[in-house]
Amino acid sequence: MDETQRRVDEIRKESTELENHIIDQFIEGKMTRRDLMRRGTVVGMSIPLLSFIAAACGGGNDSASTGTGGGTATGEVTAGGNVRVALIQPTTAPNPLLVQDEGGAGLLGSTGEFLSFSNSDLELEPRLAEKWEPNDDGSEWTFTIRQGVKFHSGATLVADDVVQTFEKLINPKGGSANAQSALGGVLSPGNIEAPDDATVVFHLDAPNGNFPTLVSSANYNAIIIPADLDPADWGKTFEGTGPFKLQSFTPKQGAKFVRNDAYWGDKANPDSMELKFYDDEAPMVLGIQGDEVDFVEHFSVSGGKALLDDPNVQVIAIRTATHRQVHMRTDKDPFTDKRVRQAIALSIDRAALVDGLWEGKADLGNDSPFAPVYPATDTSVAQREQDLEQAKQLLADAGASNVTVELDTWNGFEIPDLAQLIKQNAAEIGVTLNLKITDAATYYGDGVFGKSRWLDSVMGITDYGHRPVPNVYLTASLSGDPKIGVWNSAHFKNDEYDSLVQQYVAALDLDSQKGVAKQIQELLLDETPIIFPYFYNFLSAAKPNLKNAVSAATGQFDLSKAGFTS
Amino acid sequence: MGRFLLKRLGLALITLFLLGVFVFIGAQVLPGNVARRILGPFADQSAVENLNHQLGTDRPLLTQYWDWITSFFRGDLGDSLAYHVPVSSLIGDALVNSLKLAALAFVLVVPIAILGGVIAALKRDRAIDRVITLGGLSLSVIPEFVTGIMLILVFALWLDVLPVSANAPDNADPLTQIKYLLLPAFTLVLVLFGYIARITRAGTIESLDSDYTRTAILKGLPRRTVVRRHVLRNSLLPTIAVVATQTGYLIVGLVVIETLFNYPGMGRLIFTAATQKDFPLLEAAVLIVGIVFLIANLAADLAYSLLNPRIRYAAAE
Q: B54 vs A287: CB contact, 8 Å cut-off?
């Protein structure tokens, strides 16, 4: 027997039914290599193992790359050095429970580590968890915790640290709002156990095929901290297990980190890493052009045009699910009739939005949360395009004439420009949109129904950050269950939709997920409670001589292998 | 003079008290609440209420204000609600930074602008007068953000002789710190030169046209002596008033320049505190602002009295 085949057979004997199912799908060509890597890591298969399977079994060809790579150029670098990073100003104290912004997430990830790292290809790389696996229906996930790991203080990581970390995060009184947005309805307090120092078992509220992603670095509050550490005190020491440890931190100015020589993995290449906080994008752009920083964690197309054209800057573009939701209240005139909602959606020239607002650095949205970057997204569903004639016909069929609506939103990012363009598009089919653009505090209000323009307005535009799986968008933004759909600005209520989402969330294999995703996509295209015009790229920048720097779409970055060429 | 100073001190304290009350009331009017600001728009309402309770911002307004004012008089400015560090440390660092930048800008712009205004007045209606007044006016109307970016492009990126930001490395020596502050200081010079020069020019022209100047010239004094001994000390009176008000702006009003040059000064601190509804930080910072303006105005009044004996004698009475 061929040695390779023998090894494959051995692997399959030791694999679970789910893992074998994934391998079968790959061999049968139902899954690309990239999908294999993504799905395989989510269910706990290691990247080296998956790479071997992919090479040994051939199988599905890769479709056009769904990821543009998340790092700088790679190669040999000189040892040591200090990497200077431009990071947007954190808005709160560095408390793992309170952080809900990119700057804060960058701080947490600078010394803290997660159970796994969600990279730019949406693969999960093991970190403090060596492996993980579900039970038969995905209602229970068992994580094997890496042994011999030390916190920077010298304490040893044990399973109870993981348990207590997550118990604090999901505590309904004082937990992390951001973490709970991902784990609410998925994991309840008291349902995490550590049968021994090396094992953590999560007992979920319901089967969930994407659970490992929800506790990875994608949930940027979920750095593992000592069980007895008060998260409010984390900012004093930045206690973690990562390849860098804190040297100094000055609020509102920056932080410095040095290599952790007791790190459990490969020691960091740089001697040190320096984070500089910036209140605005312009000085960050000037900073890298003026050689004051080596790496810009995130910049936008509109604010960083100079970098896009600068031959002395490496631009890292990662396809993400970051998007804007243009909601239309299905329970309020004129949007009670879905034909009116479809008409508005058909009036929009999405290609022009992508080119004009993002210079092509975005994917077209197709009015569902299934961004093209997700492996479960069914790309056979026809892309909605601008069709003014059909839009006018739909309005006529609905008996809607002289439609006038107030479009509420806030003056951040490119949103005012988007609102203006939607207004212009709508005017072409005879719909008048009166823009009401305020500030974020006014638009979001208290974030609850009855006290928030976001959730109460007839039509509005809201920004949503990247999630490596669409679960939160599907549930919180669109569920008709008031306990789940806390962000349901369209007041959408559809039992078939809710049932399909439940099936999607529970599905363990990619095939099943895709099958349900297709139905959800088609349903949402028909109902159109929300327009998803695009999903835009996450952009980072680096000096040309900086190699091996990694950026992830969630705002995380990994500079442990980074260095400079001579 | 002693009575004058005591009177001014008393008025200053009343002003600061009223300022503190108005800022507190104003902060309550701003939309949003502290916990919502910290946790973000998507946070659960119960989490927001819980954090508000932890921070004490759900207490009655009078209680919050009383706690703050009594702590203030004990020397305790409290902790920043957003950053959980003592307000005094945030303000201390920012104030020192702002004073450094203001001092450098002051040292550069005041002599240059006064010299420009005097020259323009002495050469009234000639080409150099036009250049100084029109050039200064043109520079003043260009937004400081634009001026700053242009200076960065030229000196930091193209010529590479100065750094892009104003934040010198830790423990940098004074000369290095000055080097880092030069670009924002030059920006301020370009922004303020025109205004101060025009005021100086107007004051100098008025002095040149006055009876005492004519008398001094008729007495046979050299023109240079007339200008130095008689014209300048009278022409600078309105300039002093202008410079005093600009001092306050230089220390606490540079939000745009501090953002552009990534400089952690008082302007950015106050702006952030206001947008985050970080009440302890905002109140303390605004009171510092008030004190700065009051000191600047008092210094201006003292300089006035030094230069103009009539004011000195009136104050003594």
A: no
Residue type, A219: N
SS3 content of chain B, % helix, strand, coil (to 5): 80, 0, 20
Using a cut of 0.95, tell me whether the model's pTM lies above it.
no
Tokens 């000369």 -> residue: B175
Question: Any residues with CB less than 8 A from the CB of A470 and at least 6 apart, and which?
Answer: A321, A369, A370, A371, A374, A376
Reported as a single tens digit per residue, the pLDDT across B104-154 is: 999 999 999 999 999 999 999 999 999 999 999 999 999 999 999 999 999
The residues, any chain, with a CB within 8 Å of residue A426's CB and separated by 6 or more, are A344, A347, A432, A433
Q: In residues, how long is chain A?
A: 566
- pLDDT of residue B8 exceeding 80, the answer is no
Nearest to A279 among B51, B164, B268 (CB): B268
Establish how many alpha carbons lie within 13 A of residue B61's alpha carbon, considering only the half-sphere containing its beta carbon: 10
B27-39 confidence digits (pLDDT tens): 776 666 778 777 7
| Residue range A216-253, pLDDT digits in tens | 999 999 999 999 999 999 999 999 999 999 999 999 99
Decide: B212 and B226 in contact? Cβ < 8 Å: no
B45 contacts A448? CB cut-off 8 A: yes
Q: How far apart are CA A15 and CA A468, in angstroms?
A: 25
Helix, strand, coil percentages, rounded to 5, for chain A: 30, 20, 45
A297 within 8 A of A272, measured Cβ to Cβ = no
Strands (E) located in A155-267:
192-196, 199-203, 244-250, 254-259
Q: Contact A124/A117 with Cβ under 8 angstroms? A: yes
B227: helix, strand or coil: helix
Please give the distance of CA B206 from its chain centroid, rounded to a whole number. 28
Q: What is the DSSP letter of A150?
A: B
Residues in a beta bridge with A250: A254
Instruction: Say whether residue A306 is in contact with chain B using an 8 A CB cutoff.
Output: no
